[in-house]
Amino acid sequence: MYRTCDGLTRRDFIRVGILGSSGLTLADYLRRLDAGTVAPAKGKSAIFVYLGGGPTHLDTFDMKPDAPAEVRGEFRPIHTNVPGIEICEHLPRLARCADKFAIVRGVSHTLAGHELGTMYLNTGNRPIPSLVYPGYGAVISKELPGDPDLPHFVAIPNTPQTPGYLGVRYAPLQTNTTPVAGQPFSVRGISLGGGLTVAEFQKRRDLLRQLDTTFQGLEKTSRLIDGLDKFDQQAFAMISSPRARQAFDISQEAPSVAQAFGQGRFGVSCLLALRLIEAGVRFVTVTFGGWDTHANNFRVTKDTLLPQLDQGLAALLTMLSAKGLLESTTVFVTGEFGRTPKINDRAGRDHWPRAMVVLLAGGGIRGGQVVGGSDAHGAGPKGDAITPDQVAASFYHSLGIDHRKEYQTSTGRPVMIVRDGAILRDLFG
Asked: Which of 114, 152, 371, 427 has its CA at a distance of 20 to 30 angstroms from the CA of residue 182?
């Protein structure tokens, strides 16, 4: 857990959604997952890394070494493996694989509060009171349906993304905890606890079927009751599927691969994301909070946040590439906003939505480039601003999803996936 400056915790963001902090049981999740038939998409999968709290762009991927001391801060830039691109000295692993990701600078908006900024960057739509937009995972679950024995949208450990007007059938399956290096990882409803075997589970399931006579005779008149058997079968298929259980078991990963991710919770969560994508899960979020550095920005980022981000994200990109998965897996890294150019009197930086940085990789996105830019002090965009809507449209484009496609709300209102988006063409090709 982490708490932001306005008192909101990561769990609070989840509570405003439909699922609640405890998430769904597997059978309930599957009952709401019935995605229907959608047109084939070009992309296959995506990983969304959410840096909750708002990471400092000036001390990570948009440094200003020539700015005054109260702007540039304590850190220095280092060269990457791409000539002309420099990032923070405390991100050496990412510097060595900068050819694998694109840095989008000068992303700008006006929502300086954590909750509204989080909603914006997790949907690609500026929030409005009259409508709750679906998060990226919900849209991808709808547009890119996966195999029935795997969840389509997994959140490690949870996510502020909600299904919005699409309904809870497109909600995430939340792990509600992070894995520990070298230990089997159990997820409620997928891993069988207490020594229960698949055969024993089948016996209990058969017994429940024999006892469950309450709704007999109603199935012909109720779509909900009629669908229970279908979702129960899907839940059993997932529990009994070796592929699903093995995907969540990080202890089965080859030591040569697991070692690169380290022992930290973020790194091991990235390892789990890699395994899930490799198994066939369509969309995985990894939430890494604690970036609300109003005080002691340089100590906290240097000692804790940057080393974890550097090791986990670099390992994720490198291993996706090594396994031949990076081209078919889009990786999207963002917070809700950047942080102030001027350092405050507590050696921290405050909220600053006028300038922030986003990383994108895979899915046809050309790595080793910088798109956009900020001014000399990192206070705003240099030239035309890049909006979160444009980033979202580009993200969907990398997966073969038309961001202009219209859905209908429960009241019949037509709404585009991304209302005000436009593709950043420089990212591709």
From this structure: 152
Which residues does 210 contact at the CB level (< 8 Å), separation at least 6? Answer: none
Give the C-alpha separation, 408 to 303, whole Å: 47
The reported pTM is: 0.85
The answer to whether residues 56 and 301 touch, using CB atoms and an 8 Å cutoff, is yes
CA dist 373 and 381 (Å) reads 6
- Write the CA distances from 316 to 286, 344, 402, integer angstroms: 11, 34, 27
How far apart are alpha carbons 306 and 297 in whole angstroms? 11
Strand partners, 338: 352
Which of 3.40.50, 3.30.160, 3.30.70, 3.40.720 is the CATH number of 10-191+242-427?
A: 3.40.720
What separation in angstroms does the CA of 257 have from each of 190, 251, 267, 321, 329? 24, 11, 12, 12, 18
Nearest-CA neighbor of 59 among 77, 46, 41? 77
Q: What is the residue-level pLDDT of the chain in tens, covering all 429 positions?
A: 567 887 666 555 544 444 433 345 556 555 544 433 333 334 599 999 999 999 999 999 999 999 999 999 999 999 999 999 999 999 999 999 999 999 999 999 999 999 999 999 999 999 999 999 999 999 999 999 888 888 899 999 999 999 999 998 898 988 989 999 888 787 765 654 555 454 555 555 555 555 555 555 544 445 444 444 545 555 666 666 778 788 888 999 999 999 999 999 999 999 999 999 999 999 999 999 999 999 999 999 999 999 999 999 999 999 999 999 999 999 999 999 999 999 999 999 999 999 999 999 999 999 999 999 999 999 999 999 999 999 999 999 999 999 999 999 988 999 999 999 999 999 997
Q: Please name which of 82, 39, 93, 100 lies closest in space to residue 325, comparing C-alpha atoms.
A: 100
